[in-house]
Amino acid sequence: MKPSIRRLNTDDEYYFKEGCFILELSNTPDDPAVSVARARVRPGVSTRMHRLHGIAERYVILEGTGRVEVAGQTARPVGPGDTVIIPPQCPQRITNTGTGDLVFLAVCTPRFVPDAYEDIGD
């Protein structure tokens, strides 16, 4: 890994099959230990129930309100400043319960790769 600055380019945001918009902030093979993405969920939307194989994830809530379900636990409310810790293989989804976008950082260790994503239902 070399020192660098990655500049934000909002045009790089894309829709992911999970049901949210993703903007990769840092996710490269030369830094395999971690990835950081901004996720955005529209009002009233729940992401698909899914799990990540071999990857721990943290949701750092920046804007909006929601409910998060992890590992079969009852959905719990989340809002700005909350951090949700999600161990590898844990079923998870998040629902936007507010009137504006729910925006959070998804910090993955090791870095997120699409092959680790498994859709496990609605």
Protein model, in words:
It contains no helices and 11 strands. A 6-stranded antiparallel sheet has the order 1-2-3-10-5-8, with no helix packed on it. The mean pLDDT is 96. It is mostly beta strands and 122 residues long. It has one domain (21-113): Sandwich (Jelly Rolls).
Topology (elements, then pairings):
Blueprint: E1 14-16, E2 20-26, E3 35-41, E4 49-52, E5 56-63, E6 66-70, E7 76-78, E8 83-86, E9 92-96, E10 102-109, E11 117-121
User: Could you say which overall geometry the principal axes of the C-alpha atoms support?
Assistant: globular
Question: In sequence order, what are the helices and strands, one letter per element?
Answer: EEEEEEEEEEE
Main-sheet strand order equals 1-2-3-10-5-8
Distance between the termini: 38 Å
The beta-strand count equals 11
What percent of residues adopt helix (DSSP H or I)? under 10%
Q: What's the alpha carbon Rg, rounded to whole Å?
A: 14 Å
CATH topology: Jelly Rolls
State the major sheet: 6 strands, antiparallel
Uncertain runs = none
Question: What proportion strand?
Answer: over 45%
**Structural domain count:** 1
| The CATH class | Mainly Beta
Query: Helix count?
Result: 0
Organism: Desulfosarcina alkanivorans
Protein name: Cupin type-2 domain-containing protein
Pfam family, one: Cupin_2
InterPro entries: Cupin_2 (IPR013096), PKS_Associated_Protein (IPR052044), RmlC-like_jellyroll (IPR014710), RmlC_Cupin_sf (IPR011051)
